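Lab manual, section 2.4: Encoding a predicted structure.

Procedure: take the sequence of the chain (135 residues), apply the prediction step described in section 2.3, and record the output as structure tokens. A sample record is shown.
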Amino acid sequence: MSFVKITKNEKNKRFREKVMELAGDNIQICYQCGECSGGCPEASAMDLLPNQVLHKIQLGNEGVLDANTFWICSSCLVCSARCPKGIDIAKVMEALREISLRSKKTYVELEALTKKELEELPQIALISSFKKQTS
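Recorded output:
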């Protein structure tokens, strides 16, 4: 079992606040019930479940940006509809995509993909790539 050291450093706080600002929601009220993850149709393809992503953000862990979860999220809003605290989790995933794109990390290079890879790639990854290349 691994333990997470909770710190109150400024970097963690800034990351958490940036996500909440972009999402327009207070994710601090999430109490990890798992309703979002239980209803997510894409959960089996994610390396972190939506509630785990929220928990990492609550801790200010920027390592969440290395996960594939927010790229796989189809923004179907099932998680947001099921959340008993009313958190718009789909907006949180979009906020993480925005932060990732703003940091100039490249995840999709269309020219390098085969036709089969293009067919399997989540559409949101293509949209995000397009936004990055045109903004």
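Check your result against the sample. Residues 10-134 form a domain with the Fumarate Reductase Iron-sulfur Protein; Chain B, domain 2 fold (CATH 1.10.1060).
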